[in-house]
Design brief:
Layout lengths: L1 H9 L15 E8 L3 H17 L3 E8 L3 H10 L6 E5 L3 H6 L21 H4 L3 E2 L2 E2 L2 E13 H6 L9 H11 L12 E4 L4 H10 L16 H17 L2 E2 L9 H6 L3 E7 L2 H8 L5 E4 L11 E9 L6 H11 L2 H8 L9 H6 L9 H5 L5 E2 L6 H16 L5 H19 L1
Helix pairs in contact: 8-9, 16-17
Length: 413
């Protein structure tokens, strides 16, 4: 029903770009989700800078705190959506297919320097040879390791392969108090699909086929995910956040409950602020099956196809994702720039903590799973955790998740 409604509104006659003819500023509504107060303050400052440079445009910024995509989809159907809004790459395939986003190709001129964007990231917002979004920032996944724990275990460098990671984990799993309870696990497991999909691809598998149906219950899927199950069940050198009483992978690493964890760039400011005494380093995700792989997460600014102010909406998008706006947005380091020139100017390619994130972009797997990703993600997460806990065999769990996901997708087609 949502898809049909989107199709109807997408086919309506749409107004031409608005030309400012009076001194009254055009109001552009920008919507995003809630974030760290520091990030919110920074974005508001950048929007003020934009308004100074574009006095004929005023930006009304709205934070949608809960159920962001549900709110956006409802407003798109009701013709009340913002002019410009955040769109996660994970949700992009569905909206791009519904004819509710404005293609940006015609607005992009040579001076905008589209080639400056990381191609892997930009491709997440392409559909049928059109660009529907320009990515504002990104993060890949990278290995975080506790340098003090490594030194205590006699380890001098991060693991380069997954076999090495498992071997290191055994050395790093310790009972510090000699009371029969493990105080530090070698590795912190985050079982959600968003953190496991690259292991499936390392053996040649995919999350979805060309028609958007789940395919993760393949031989490749079992091989990749069996690595996680074996380390957790057989080696007993890995822990989940619930095993050690924490709320995230970053927290269990920061508290010293695990010596290694694979996390995103967002973990760096969190660890520095929350655990200032922690001595840690980062490295590329260890190779699996002799292949380099990681995930890349990104968010774009997109334009509502129904906006009455397309020219002004483009001015805002082009500023926020242009070299000046992106440098301001990513200069503090909590987000990484999707423009190569900005990353180089800010020195992130030489930053010991952040350079592995940039290196991983070229081979990263975008976090996308077709037009109906929630069906795939939710069913995978529910069944895989069951297999991880030993409640059912991995192959059985994956097949159940895939079958149920595809039933839901078929019903939504």
């Amino acid at each position: 029903m949502v898809a049909i409604a989107f199709l109807v509104i997408g086919c309506q006659n749409l107004p031409s770009p608005h030309a400012t003819t009076t001194t009254t500023p055009v109001i552009i509504k920008l919507s995003g989700w809630g974030a760290d107060p520091t990030e919110q303050k920074l974005l508001k400052q950048i929007l003020k800078d934009f308004e100074v440079q574009h006095p004929a445009i005023k930006v009304k910024y709205e934070v949608i705190a809960d159920q962001y995509m549900d709110v956006i989809k409802t407003r798109l159907i009701g013709e009340a959506a913002p002019d410009v809004f955040y769109l996660d790459a994970f949700e992009a395939p569905f909206l791009m297919s519904q004819n509710v986003l404005e293609p940006l190709d015609a607005y992009i001129n040579p001076e905008f320097d589209l080639a400056d964007f990381e191609e892997t990231i930009l491709n997440s917002f392409k559909y049928e040879n059109h660009i529907y979004g320009l990515p504002k920032d990104f993060s890949t996944l990278t290995l975080f390791y506790n340098k003090q724990a490594f030194t205590s275990a006699g380890l001098t460098s991060p693991p380069a392969t997954w076999d090495e990671l498992r071997a290191y984990s055994k050395q790093l799993t310790v009972d510090k108090n000699q009371d029969g309870r493990i105080d530090q696990y070698g590795y912190g497991v985050i079982p959600e699909l968003a953190r496991q999909a690259y292991k499936i691809r390392a053996f040649g598998g995919q999350l979805v086929d060309a028609n958007g149906y789940a395919t993760f219950a393949s031989e490749a899927g079992v091989k990749g995910l069996q690595l996680v199950v074996d380390q957790y069940q057989k080696d007993r050198t890995a822990a989940q956040k619930s095993d050690v009483g924490t709320n995230s992978g970053s927290e269990m690493f920061g508290q010293g409950k695990v010596a290694m964890v694979i996390e995103g760039n967002w973990a760096i400011p969190y660890l520095k602020d929350t655990f200032p005494q922690l001595d840690f380093a980062t490295a590329e995700v260890p190779t699996i099956n002799d292949k380099k792989s990681t995930m890349v997460f990104t968010v774009a600014y997109v334009m509502n196809k129904q906006t009455q102010h397309k020219a002004e909406a483009w001015e805002l998008i082009s500023y926020l994702t242009g070299k000046e706006g992106m440098e301001k947005w990513t200069a503090t380091g909590f987000a990484l720039p999707t423009r190569k020139s900005v990353a180089e100017k800010l020195g992130y390619d030489k930053d010991p903590l952040r350079s592995p994130f940039l290196t991983g972009v070229s081979y990263a797997m975008p976090w996308q799973a077709g037009k109906y990703p929630a069906a795939i993600m939710n069913n995978f997460d529910n069944q895989f955790i069951s297999a991880l806990l030993g409640q059912q065999a991995l192959q059985q769990a994956l097949q159940r998740a895939q079958t149920q996901a595809n039933k839901l997708i078929q019903a939504m087609e």
